[in-house]
Amino acid sequence: MNELAKEFSYQIGWRSRGRHPGRHASAQRGLGMDFVGHAPLISYPDPRRIDLRLSLRDPMEQVYVRIYNQRSAVPVFVACDLSGSMGFSGHFNKLRIAAEITASAAQSASRINDPFGFIGFDEEVRDAWVIPASTRVQAAYLLAEQLQDYRPPHVGGAGILQVSRYLPRERALVLLVSDFHMPLEALEEALVSMQRHHIVPIVLWDAAEYSAIPEFGLTHVTDSETGEKRTLMLRKSTHARIQAAFAERHAALDALFMRFDVPPFFIEQGFDADALTEYFYQFVTA
Length: 286
Hints:
Layout: E1 21-24, E2 29-40, H1 52-57, E3 64-69, E4 76-81, H2 94-111, E5 116-121, E6 125-134, H3 138-148, E7 173-178, H4 184-193, E8 198-204, E9 217-222, E10 229-234, H5 236-259, E11 265-267, H6 273-283
Parallel strand pairs: 4-5, 4-7, 7-8, 8-11
Antiparallel strand pairs: 2-3, 5-6, 9-10
Helix pairs in contact: 2-3
């Protein structure tokens, strides 16, 4: 196991249509144990599934077989924001946490034979940060190692609007990892474009961004996504406004994600795999 990986458990709330065997409830007929009904042998010619009791009772002397659904795999993706604000490092390094989530998701998916893929974006989706879904996760581990050391340039996160083009046609589980400092209008448009998939928004914030700020004095700040530099005179009222702005942003993100029925998973104190497991048990009904 990769040293960044912290395995967690997850489940899905729909029946997979995937053809590859896995651990999730499926709509695919197969050799599984999920009984769904009977059919004439002529329609499903599998003598191993003959139901003798039902066949002997049939007045038309029809031979019936039991029909089962197989358990199938589901693609799992991490779609990760690589914009300038994700380079922030305060109490924690955001991209180090994103790397831990990536390695952990790859390991957790591999354990139950789900294919794993990665999509990295800033102003656009970057091909160098794209891994197609595969059950071979060594490439994902290598990418996670690179991700923790990546220092993003001063660019925005508009590439979130392109993520849906890199997702498969079949429904996938997508861990959307970002600090979500992009405009809410762009985020809403991106969520609409990904509605066929199950999105888990993972919000990476750091208390040092808004609470560990001096109440008085001069400070120099740089906008991490535009590179613009400013000098601010900090007062107690300025400190309070910054705190209030982050509280309002938290509430706005909550409201937007809940409109799409995808509760956000906030991380401010480092990645806790057990907490993510609890999230799935609480919000995703298998």
